[in-house]
Design a protein that fits this description.
Blueprint (H helix, E strand, L loop, with lengths): L6 H18 L3 E9 L2 E9 L2 E10 L13 H17 L7 E11 L2 E7 L4
Parallel strand pairs: 3-4
Antiparallel strand pairs: 1-2, 2-3, 4-5
């Protein structure tokens, strides 16, 4: 009998897939799982001169909708607050930033990846 992965296991697997995908797209991974307060940014990366805050959403089924739709306006607001804290903590000023989303469906042998640059 197959056991369903926990939410944490699914998230960890998705973050590994996303990190590899972002590297293949030419991004440099700066930090994983930056936490501030109740929020977290899954991946902080550099795309040339741009600092990229990346949210990763992974699903094994579409039972609750496509993974990218889980990033609600409230979640976007929380990610912006955490990104501001990251910039403050690292004393980063005058840098272009963007928010990307890596939505992953774990189907069959190969994950299906929807990479959305400048998602919000």
């Amino acid at each position: 009998m197959l056991h369903k992965p926990t939410t944490k296991q699914t998230g960890n697997r998705g973050e590994q897939v996303a990190m590899q995908h972002l590297k293949q797209q030419g991004l440099e991974i700066v930090e994983m799982n930056y936490r501030f307060g109740h929020g977290e940014i899954d991946v902080v990366a550099r795309d040339g001169d741009v600092l990229v805050f990346c949210e990763v959403k992974t699903r094994y089924t579409d039972e609750f909708g496509a993974p990218e739709y889980a990033i609600t306006p409230r979640k976007q607001q929380q990610l912006r607050r955490v990104a501001q804290a990251y910039l403050f903590d690292h004393e980063i000023r005058e840098v272009d930033c963007r928010f990307d989303v890596v939505a992953i469906r774990m189907t069959g042998n190969r994950p299906e990846i929807n990479y959305i640059k400048n998602a919000f």
